[in-house]
Amino acid sequence: MKKPMVSIAIAAVVLAVVSIVALGGNSSPRDPMTGQNEFDIPVQDPVLVAEGGDLYRANCAACHGSNLTGTAVGPSQLSVVYQPGHHPNEAYISAIRNGVPAHHWDFGDMAPVVGLSQGDMDRIVTFVRETQRIEGFEAYPPR
Question: Which fold has domain 41-135?
């Protein structure tokens, strides 16, 4: 009797994966128990997320969009190229502090964002990571 239960469980997992692929949506399926996505972004501190959201809107949204989906002058931060394994938090901090030459996109170079403290930058990254955790990631290149 245990074999049919294992087969049913395997079939359920396969069906779930096929459904996610077939129906589209975010490219980052969630673990139903933890809510984490496949990139293992942990839940972020809600106070830091709120503070980071305010800083993001004031300093980043003009180029990257208020909902992180990009604009005509800057890329979406929900692109899978910005997942933590490819662009760790330190890469975000470096880009904010020093600017970054264009390398994934044709938007041109990103200038440094002046006037932000290390704490401000950390809060912005916290906001971005929590939004990525919730929203998931878009395919690259965009469709």
Answer: Cytochrome Bc1 Complex; Chain D, domain 2 (1.10.760)
